[in-house]
Write a structure and sequence with these properties.
The complex is a heterotrimer of chains A (485), B (95) and C (491). Chain A is of the alpha+beta class. Chain A is built from 15 helices and 17 strands. Helices cover 38% and strands 20% of the residues of chain A. A nine-stranded mixed sheet of chain A has the order 3-7-8-11-1-12-13-14-15. A three-stranded antiparallel sheet of chain A has the order 6-5-16, with no helix packed on it. Chain A has a two-stranded antiparallel sheet with strand order 4-17. Chain B is an alpha+beta fold. Chain B is 34% helix and 9% strand. In chain B, a hairpin with a 2-residue loop joins strand 2 and strand 3. Chain B is flat. Chain C is α/β, with parallel strands linked by helices. Chain C has a domain of 336 residues: Amidase signature (AS) enzymes (Alpha-Beta Complex), CATH 3.90.1300. Chain C is globular and about 65 Å long. The chains are: A alpha+beta (485), B alpha+beta (95), C alpha/beta (491). Chains B and C meet through helix 1, helix 2, helix 3 and strand 3 of B and helix 9, helix 10, helix 11, helix 12 and helix 13 of C.
C-alpha cells in the first residue's frame, strides 16, 4: 500500500555566531564561564544601558547569507519582540522582524545521490536569552524556584528559515547537516548541537499525497541532536497521522520533543497570549550596508564545502572520502592546507595520507588539531620529505612522530638524536648483509632450495644488526644478490 | 477609535503584566478613552504614501569592534531582590 | 552668600582667581539646600561625600596652578533618572527607590572629567512622565517663585534647584518638553540639544527616540559652556551623532541682524494665555530692534504632534519599562508566590498611576489589531512633522513660540484631566518629534509675577544659531537676572 500522507517540513535553525563578544555589548561569549560573570549593564538590561551592534556579527550574518545565495539587504531593521520571561533581561528581545538582513536564498542537499534545492526564506539576526536553572525538581514542572544566569543573554544568533520544501526526515537531516557544514566551514558557527550553538525547530504538517494545499503545521522544539531530528519527525508524523485518521483536526501549536520517550507534547504558553508587539528598536538606527561593504564581504568569502570538495578531488587527486574527512574536521583541514603551502615538491595525496592517518590518530587523544597543537606544518612536511627521499623509513618516521608532535623540533635534529636516519648506503649495508649470511649459512641453503620466504629471516637479522635503520627494499635486493652469486 | 472596552483594557493589562484594582481600572478606562478620543484627529491626515519614521535622525547604526571589554565587578547582589548561588532567584515559574 | 546666585561662568572665574575656594562654594551650596529644600523639595538625595572629595581635588589642582576648564569646581545637580555610580538613581519611583546604579552615565563621566561637582539627585515626575513633578512617588517639588505652584516637569527638581541657589547648573532630560517647560516655569534657561548631540547612555529611558539630556542654566552663556562639556559622540550610544566637535561658546556675543525668525500663528492664538502672549510679543519686538526679521507663518503641526507624541512615547515606554520586572533589581512584591504574581504585583505596586496608564496606552497602540491605526499612523505623521520643519527651516533660521501655553499652574490644578496636562506640552513636543534643538529663555512675567519662557527652535544640529539668538536677547534684557523673593531674603 502506498503511503496516504506526505509530510511537509520547514526548518528554523538558530546558529550562534562565532564572535568574541556578544551582539550588543563587549562581554565575552566564551562557553562555560562562572554564572553571571560574562555580564555588564547592557546584557543585564540595567536601567539606562544601550545596545551597540557588533560589526563582526553583521559580517558573519552576511557571510551566511552569501553562502546560502541570499539577497543581502541594503537596509535592515532591528525590532523589539516584547514578552516577559526571567531569562530575558529587558522584557524584550532585540531581533530583526520585517526587514531582516538576508532574504530569499537556497541550499542544495543530497539524499541518496539525488540533489534537491531547498529554498531559504530569510536569515535574521537576534540576541539569545539567558539560562534558567530550575531548583527542587528535575524540570520546570515541579520546581519550587529557579535561578537565572545571564552569561548567554545577548549572545549573537542568526535564525535561518527554510521554505517548506522538505518532504522527509532524511531530507531534513541532510539539510541540517549541509547547513551545519557550510556554517562551520565559513567559520560563523561551531556546529555544536549538543551545546546548543545550533538549534533546530521543525515545522511539520501533513497532507494527502498529491494535494497542493498545506495542512496545519506544528512547530517542534528541543531537538538537539541529529538522531533526534529523525526521531522527532517520525513521532510527530505518527501523531498527526493518528489525529487525521481518527477524523480529528491538527491544532497549530508549539510542541516540545522529549528524546527519552521519543514523543512530543504541547509546550505551555509563555504565560502571555502571543502578541509580541514588534516595533522598530528605537535604540538602534537602521543597519545600512553599502554595495562596497557587501562586495568586500563577498570578495573575502571563505571557500564553501562543495568548492573545497571539488578542488581536493579534481585538483589534488584526493579521494571523496578523504576530502569529506578534511571538510568535516576543520582544524585538520587548516593543518593540511598549511602543509600544502610549504610542500610544492610532495604529492598532496601523500600529505593527506599522513595527516588523516598517523598524525590524526596520535592527536586524537590530545585534543586533535585544536589551538593546543604546537607542531609546525613545516617540520611535519620535512618529515614526509625525509621519507620520500629515502633518508627515513616509514617505520622510523612513525616512531619519530610522537616526539615531533611533543617537541616541534627540526626532524633533522630528532633524526640525529635517534642515531641517524635510514641506512641506504649500499657498501655499509653490504657489509652487514655479508656478515649475516656468513652466520646463517643453513638459512641461505633453504633460500637457495626455493624457500624464498626464509630470506625474510635474513632481512630481520640485518634490520636487527642495523638497529632498524637499514633501508628494507635495498637490503632485500642485496641479500638475494649475495645468495645468488 | 476611542471605543476602548473594558475587555480591551483587560487584555492590555495582561500583556503589560500589571495587577490593577477594579476601581483603578475604571478610572484608567475613562482616561484612556479620553486620550484615544483626542487622537482621532490623526485620522484626518492622509498618510497613505508617507514613509514611517521611527527615528528623528537618518543615519546608519553605529557598530562596535568585536573586542572583549573587561567588565569591572558589578555588585549584582546589592540590587538583586533575591540572590542565591551568584544567580538571580525567581519564584516558581508554573502554578 | 550672594555668590550663590551668580552665573556658573562667573563662579568659575572666582574659583580660578582663588577669591573663593571650591570647598567654600560646596559648603555654601549644601547650607543653602539645608535652608530652603524643606520648602522647595528639589532633591531626592545628596552626593555629599563625593562632592567634597571632588571639591578638594579641584582646590588642590587650582592651588597648584593647573589650567582647568571654565566650569571646573561648579556645583551641578543631576536629575534622578541619570545613573550615578554608587548612588541611588530612583527615577522618583517606588520601583527604583533603593536602586544603586552600578555605573556612571556618559554625561556623568564627562562632568567629572571636566571637574564639575555633582552635588545631588533631583526630583522628577516618575520616570519623567509628567509636566509638574506631581507624579513623583516621593513628593512634589515647589516653584521657588511661588511655593503653591509647580516648577514644571518632568525635570522640575533640576529647574527649581538652579533658581533658588541650590545649584549653579543642573541636568535634566527632555522627551516632550521636560527641560524647556520647567525652565520657562522657573524663569531660567533650559536647552534640549538636537537628538544625538548628548549620549543617552545611563539615562533611564522613557521614550528612546525622543529622550535627550540637556542643561538648566541661569544664562545662555552658561548653557553654551556646559554644552561644550556634555556634548559629543559616544561609542556606547548607537544613536549619538557622529559629528565634529563644536565650540558652542562661539555663538556668544554675535550680531543677529538679518536673523530670520518664523512665528507659527497657531502658537500665538487662543490656546495661549494672554499674559504669556504679550510677553512673547514684547520679546519679538526686542528681536526686531536687534535687526532680526520676524514673520508670522502657518504651521499647523502642533495638535498633530501632541497626538503623535502620546502614541509614540507610551509605545516606546511600554517596552522600556518592561525591564522593571523584579528579577535583577528594583522593587519586588513580598506577596508573590509564583512568577506571574511576581511580575504583576511588583509592577502593579512599584509603578504609580501615570506610569501604569502610559504603559497601558503604549501596549494598546502596539497590540495586534491596533498597530496600524495608531502606532504606524503616528510614525507616518512623524514624517510629516519632520517634513514640515524641513520646509520651515528652508525659509527661517529659528522658530519662536511660547515655551508653554501658560505660566506655572498651582499644585493639583491639572491632575484630574490628563489631556489638559498633555496639552501643556503642545509647543515643546514637535522639536522632539523631529530631533531639533530647542531652548527656553526667560522673557517676562505674568500679572502674578510668574516667569514666561520664550522657546527658540533651530534646525537639527544648529544649536549655534539657537544660542546666538538667546544670547543676543539676554545681552539687551534683564529678565534672566530677576530673582524670586525667597532668594532676596536669603542674601
Amino acid at each position: 500500500m502506498s503511503p496516504k500522507y506526505e509530510m511537509v517540513i520547514g526548518l528554523e535553525v538558530h546558529a550562534q555566531l562565532s564572535t568574541n563578544t556578544k551582539l550588543f555589548c563587549g562581554c565575552s561569549t566564551k562557553f562555560g564561564a562562572d554564572v553571571n560573570t560574562n555580564v555588564c549593564p547592557v546584557c543585564l538590561g540595567m536601567p539606562g544601558a544601550l545596545p551597540v551592534l557588533n560589526r563582526d556579527a553583521v559580517t558573519m550574518a552576511v557571510q551566511a547569507g552569501v553562502a546560502l545565495n541570499c539577497d543581502i539587504q541594503h537596509e535592515s531593521v532591528f525590532a523589539r519582540k516584547n514578552y516577559f520571561y526571567p531569562d530575558l533581561p529587558k522584557g524584550y528581545q532585540i531581533s530583526q522582524f520585517e526587514l531582516p538582513v538576508c532574504l530569499g536564498g537556497s541550499l542544495d542537499i543530497e539524499v541518496d545521490g539525488a540533489v534537491k534545492r531547498i529554498g531559504i526564506t530569510r536569515i535574521h539576526m537576534e540576541e539569545d536569552a539567558g539560562k534558567l536553572l530550575h531548583q527542587g525538581a528535575m524540570g520546570i514542572a515541579d520546581s519550587t524556584y529557579s535561578l537565572v544566569d545571564l552569561n548567554r543573554a545577548c549572545t549573537p544568533l542568526i535564525e535561518i528559515v527554510s521554505e517548506p520544501d522538505l518532504r522527509s526526515a532524511a531530507e531534513a537531516r541532510a539539510y541540517v547537516e549541509t547547513l551545519r557544514q557550510i556554517l562551520r566551514t565559513i567559520g560563523v558557527n561551531d556546529g555544536n548541537l549538543e551545546e546548543g550553538s545550533l538549534r533546530v525547530d521543525i515545522n511539520i504538517s501533513l497532507r494527502h499525497v498529491g494535494a497542493t494545499q498545506f495542512g496545519t503545521r506544528c512547530e517542534v522544539k528541543n531537538v538537539n541532536s541529529f538522531r533526534s531530528i529523525d526521531r522527532a519527525i517520525a513521532s510527530e508524523f505518527i501523531r498527526q497521522q493518528e489525529v487525521l485518521e481518527s477524523g480529528g483536526r491538527i491544532v497549530q501549536q508549539t510542541r516540545n520533543y522529549h528524546d527519552d520517550t521519543q514523543t512530543t507534547t504541547p509546550l505551555r504558553d509563555k504565560e502571555d497570549a502571543h502578541d509580541y508587539r514588534y516595533f522598530p528598536e528605537p535604540d538602534l538606527l537602521p543597519l545600512l550596508l553599502t554595495d562596497e561593504r557587501i562586495q568586500s564581504i563577498r570578495a573575502a568569502m571563505p571557500e564553501l564545502p562543495h568548492a573545497i570538495c571539488r578542488r581536493y578531488q579534481q585538483g589534488l587527486g584526493l579521494t571523496r572520502a578523504d576530502a569529506d574527512i578534511l571538510i568535516e574536521e576543520i582544524g585538520m583541514r587548516r593543518f593540511f592546507e598549511a602543509c600544502l603551502a610549504c610542500a610544492q615538491d610532495i604529492s598532496p595525496k601523500e600529505i593527506s595520507k599522513w595527516v588523516i592517518g598517523d598524525l590524526n590518530a596520535l592527536l586524537k587523544p590530545k585534543g586533535g588539531f585544536g589551538p593546543s597543537l604546537s607542531l609546525s606544518p613545516e617540520y611535519f612536511v620535512k618529515l614526509i620529505r625525509l621519507i620520500s627521499s629515502g633518508a627515513l623509513s616509514g617505520k622510523m618516521a612513525k616512531e619519530m612522530l610522537p616526539q615531533l608532535i611533543e617537541t616541534d623540533q627540526d626532524p633533522d635534529v630528532l633524526m640525529a638524536n635517534l642515531g641517524g636516519g635510514q641506512i641506504s648506503d649500499e657498501s655499509t649495508l653490504l657489509e652487514i648483509v655479508r656478515k649475516v649470511i656468513s652466520e646463517n649459512l643453513d638459512v641461505v641453503e633453504k633460500v637457495k632450495s626455493g624457500k624464498t620466504a626464509s630470506a625474510n629471516f635474513l632481512m630481520g637479522q640485518v634490520m636487527k644488526q642495523s638497529q632498524g635503520k637499514a633501508k628494507p627494499d635495498l637490503v632485500m635486493s642485496l641479500i638475494l644478490a649475495e645468495i645468488n652469486t | 477609535m476611542s471605543d476602548l472596552s473594558m475587555q480591551d483594557l483587560d487584555h492590555v493589562i495582561k500583556l503589560s503584566h500589571l495587577e490593577i484594582s477594579p476601581s483603578r481600572k475604571d478610572m484608567y478606562l475613562k482616561k484612556l478613552q479620553q486620550v484615544l478620543g483626542y487622537m482621532d484627529q490623526l485620522k484626518r491626515l492622509n498618510v497613505d504614501d508617507v514613509k514611517p519614521s521611527s527615528h528623528a535622525i537618518n543615519q546608519s547604526t553605529r557598530l562596535r569592534e568585536d573586542v572583549v571589554v573587561p567588565q569591572p565587578d558589578l555588585p549584582l547582589e546589592l540590587n538583586a531582590p533575591q540572590w542565591e548561588a551568584h544567580s538571580f532567584r525567581v519564584p516558581k515559574i508554573l502554578g | 552668600m550672594k555668590d550663590l546666585f551668580i552665573s556658573a561662568i562667573e563662579l568659575g572665574k572666582r574659583l580660578k582667581n582663588r577669591s573663593l575656594t571650591c570647598r567654600q562654594i560646596v559648603d555654601a551650596t549644601y547650607q543653602r539646600i539645608d535652608a530652603v529644600d524643606h520648602q522647595v523639595k528639589a532633591f531626592i538625595s545628596l552626593m555629599t561625600e563625593s562632592a567634597y572629595i571632588q571639591a578638594d581635588a579641584v582646590d588642590r589642582l587650582l592651588d597648584a596652578g593647573q589650567e582647568l576648564g571654565p566650569l571646573a569646581g561648579v556645583p551641578i545637580a543631576i536629575k534622578d533618572n541619570i545613573c550615578t555610580k554608587g548612588y541611588r538613581t530612583t527615577c522618583s519611583s517606588k520601583m527604583l527607590e533603593n536602586f544603586v546604579a552600578p555605573y556612571d552615565a556618559t554625561v556623568m563621566t564627562k562632568l567629572h572629567q571636566n571637574h564639575l561637582i555633582s552635588i545631588g539627585k533631583t526630583n522628577l515626575d516618575e520616570f519623567a512622565m509628567g509636566s509638574s513633578t506631581e507624579n513623583s512617588a516621593f513628593f512634589t517639588t515647589r516653584n521657588p517663585w511661588d511655593l503653591e505652584r509647580v516648577p514644571g516637569g518632568s525635570s522640575g527638581g533640576s529647574s527649581a534647584a538652579v533658581v533658588c541657589g541650590e545649584a549653579f547648573l543642573s541636568l535634566g532630560s527632555d522627551t516632550g518638553g521636560s527641560i524647556r517647560q520647567p525652565a520657562a516655569f522657573c524663569g531660567i534657561v533650559g536647552i534640549k540639544p538636537s537628538y544625538g548631540r548628548i549620549s543617552r547612555y545611563g539615562l533611564v529611558a522613557f521614550a528612546s527616540s525622543l529622550d535627550q539630556i540637556g542643561p538648566f542654566t541661569r544664562t545662555v552663556e552658561d548653557a553654551a559652556h556646559i554644552l561644550n562639556v556634555i556634548c559629543g559622540p559616544d561609542p556606547m550610544d548607537s544613536t549619538s551623532a557622529e559629528l565634529p566637535p563644536v565650540d558652542f561658546s562661539t555663538a556668544l556675543g554675535k550680531d543677529i541682524k538679518g536673523l530670520r525668525i518664523g512665528v507659527p500663528k497657531e502658537m500665538m492664538g487662543d490656546k495661549i494665555a494672554d499674559d504669556v502672549r504679550q510677553a512673547i510679543e514684547q520679546a519679538l519686538d526686542v528681536y526686531r530692534s536687534l535687526g532680526a526679521i520676524v514673520e508670522f507663518v502657518d504651521f499647523d503641526m502642533f495638535d498633530y504632534a501632541v497626538s503623535t507624541y502620546y502614541i509614540i512615547a507610551p509605545a516606546e515606554a511600554s517596552a522600556n519599562l518592561a525591564r522593571f520586572d523584579g528579577v535583577r533589581y528594583g522593587y519586588r512584591s513580598e506577596s508573590a508566590t509564583n512568577l506571574r504574581e511576581m511580575y504583576t504585583r511588583s509592577r502593579g505596586e512599584g509603578f504609580g498611576p501615570e506610569v501604569q496608564r502610559r504603559i497601558l496606552l503604549g501596549t494598546y497602540v502596539l497590540s495586534s489589531g491596533y498597530y496600524d491605526a495608531y502606532y504606524l499612523r503616528a510614525q507616518k505623521v512623524r514624517t510629516l512633522i519632520k517634513n514640515g520643519f524641513a520646509d520651515f527651516f528652508s525659509r527661517y533660521d529659528v522658530m519662536m513660540t511660547p515655551t508653554s501655553p501658560s505660566v506655572a499652574f498651582k499644585v493639583g490644578d491639572h491632575s484630574s484631566d490628563p489631556m489638559a496636562m498633555y496639552l501643556a506640552d503642545i509647543a515643546t513636543i514637535p522639536a522632539n518629534m523631529a530631533g531639533l534643538p530647542g531652548m527656553s529663555i526667560p522673557c517676562g512675567f505674568s500679572r502674578d509675577g510668574l516667569p514666561v519662557g520664550l522657546q527658540i527652535l533651530g534646525k537639527a544640529y544648529d544649536e549655534l544659531t539657537v544660542l546666538k539668538a538667546g544670547d543676543a536677547y539676554q545681552r539687551v534684557t534683564n529678565f534672566h537676572l530677576k530673582q524670586p523673593s525667597m532668594n532676596q531674603v536669603a542674601s
